[in-house]
Amino acid sequence: MLKSLFVYGLLGVLLIPAKCNPIVVCIEDDDDLRVDCLIKSKPNKINTYEFSWSSGTKEILINTNVSGSSADSQFKSTVEELQPHGYRMTLSHFKEKIPLNTTYMCKVTGEIARIKMEKAQLAPCSAVSLFLKSSCSWIICLLLTLHQTHS
Ligand SMILES: *[C@@H]1O[C@H](CO)[C@@H](O)[C@H](O)[C@H]1NC(C)=O
Ligand SMILES: *[C@@H]1O[C@H](CO)[C@@H](O)[C@H](O)[C@H]1NC(C)=O
């Protein structure tokens, strides 16, 4: 039991941040830029979100509902809540305007996730969600297998 807990913990630490990064950036069919931020919000707290990116040395706020801060007015983005948790930010018809090397960041209630992407690496959302599903469920499979061999 202890041993399997250890394995769970170790795999969790090693694999989940790498394979299941809570921030996912992709391009939708109609050239919208989509950023999914899958950080769990905290129960019993006022939850806030913040989407930003940095390109070169400049960090630009795209959308937030942190009171007191306001997004750069050049961005007309929308944010919706995802089930079971997380937020999705969409910038309409933005494909042409994406900076070449960009670090995308999102923050939910103080917790931050970031991913660096070159413009050429951005994949269509349909492909990304398939990939994500398969790599995350692959980890779950592995965990279950290990669990069974150890118990
Ligand atoms: C930000 O948006 C979330 C989800 O819509 C909401 O639950 C939260 O109360 C908002 N926070 C503020 C400070 O308005
Ligand atoms: C983007 O980053 C890569 C490596 O991180 C670098 O090779 C490339 O020159 C950069 N491109 C631009 C336009 O800054």
Automatic annotation (TrEMBL):
Tagged with keyword Glycoprotein: yes
Keyword Calcium: no
Principal cellular location given in the protein's record: membrane
GO terms under cellular component: dendrite; external side of plasma membrane; focal adhesion; membrane raft; myelin sheath
Keywords carried by this UniProt record: Cell membrane, Disulfide bond, Glycoprotein, Immunoglobulin domain, Lipoprotein, Membrane, Signal
GO biological process, one term: integrin-mediated signaling pathway
Domain of life: Eukaryota
Signal peptide limits: 1-20
Name under which the protein is recorded: Ig-like domain-containing protein
One GO molecular-function entry: integrin binding
Cell compartments where the protein resides: Cell membrane
